[in-house]
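Model it.
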Amino acid sequence: MVAPILALRDVHLSFGGTPLLEGAELAVAPGERLCLVGRNGSGKSTLLKIAADLVQPDSGERFVQPGATMRYLPQEPDLSGFESALDYVEAGLGPGDDPHRARHLLEALGLTGAENPGNLSGGEIRRCALARALAPELDILLLDEPTNHLDLPAIEWLERTLLASRSALILISHDRRFLEALSRVTLWLSDGQVRRLDRGFGEFETWRDDILEREETERHKFERKLAAETAWLRQGVKARRRRNQGRLRALLAMREEKRARRTPQGEVSFTTSEGGASGKLVVEVEAIAKSFGDRRIVRNFSTRILRGERVGFVGPNGAGKTTLLNLLTGALAPDSGAVRLGTNLQMVALDQSRDSLGSAVTVAEALTGGAGETVTVGGQTRHVIGYMKDFLFTAEQARTRVNVLSGGERGRLMLARAFTKPSNLLVLDEPTNDLDLETLDLLQELLADYAGTVLLVSHDRDFLDRVVTSVIAFEGQGRWIEYAGGYSDMAAQRGPSVAQIAATASHAKPKPAKSVPASPAEPAPKRARLSYKEKHALQTLPARMESLRGEIATLQTKLADPNLYARDPQNFSKTATALSTAESALAAAEDEWLALELKREELEGA
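Modeled.
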């Protein structure tokens, strides 16, 4: 076995309350590519900081091979104290590193190096930090959410660059396509411990689901045994003065084990407040154009969006995706052309800056609007604390100020507030930022089932593939073209990559004379698996079918009464209709269950 160049052993860390890390371990061999995944708040970033020697654990060991070079990319890079972007990147170079590589990487990322760090946007700060992390010759590279604030051209460039790199890599990201392309080992941080899968992220979710299913079965067995032993103890107190001391000790040990076990983390539960149906036509634009000064954002663009369609918008940062959204929804008037909005539109928008949450309000006030302690969701009135728990907020966080929430928490709060408002048109500008993979799964399922229309801006290629029915893509010089299907369909129809198209954009920086060497590798084929809804259906359909059979038997018995029609013809008709409905529902449920069961067997046998 190859000796690790970086290792953490038996790491423990607590910030008060439930320990964050309890015996966490990891090992990285030379050139190994690992991704670190887990729920928001599970401790991924903290573990990466311990690996980078930026946070000291309460206990445990950290080993780095002598002479090994390492760089760490934080989620929030700090460029203060540097006069230019180039100064910041060059400060990360080692004694033997190529001094020209710093400027070369900045130019490859669309910067000159002369930029004032105090005037950079979030995406530009991220590009500078990436250049600083990639410029030295490295043995280990630690990346915490490197695709945050990056557009698709930059993500594709980074993916190619990392594939060509020979350094070991530990990567935290919520971008599935990025993880699948780069990872060869998956580390799952859960309940304070790290479990290792010696395969890439594409195999992770099936492996994780199998583990969770086994653990749930074991938990049920444990609870049943504990209940039985407790009942024995209570009977023994009444019936015997002396009890089996060995059995009693075992029961006490089980109770201690139960107290030591972590409560399984809940799941986000999404429910939308859908409004009345809009007209069939949601929006129609004809030859619209928009410019700001000499910069042309939209040129001669036409489209029709119908009820129920889910349209994605892609393009580099600054291309004008948000401007185009505002034109389509009537928030901004075009310079020329016509915009026609459909009837009965109820629009809810989620902006990517999340500034509309405010900073002084509390979590509860952001959801209720400061009026009362209830929210109305899906036509039902609920207490705000109960609704907060659907989005993994605790009751104690009701009075927490929004400005102290993490990025993932602010993202969940934005979604929670948006879903309290009745709508038949959702406008989502980068909704996936900072959300963990499980939350993304559930958001995708919700949007797939949403009866209204969705307009979605995202740089997450996998999320676009799962959600949208068409993609409107930026082609440079103010031109936008609509493609049928998801992101992958758009890429196949389009030909050149997003990065190549971006190089022709009017706002793009001059292309550097040389590009960073890269040799793209084909990502591992994605393993087919049952979706969240399919798994849920397989679990719940048998009980539903049994219930329907019981209902059918009751109705048939009622109709078997020969005097029912003469005595109560209205009741007879109502019962006959109910029987027909129940029989149709049973047939549909049986067909669905059989199809899913066959699919499950085929996948397991593959």
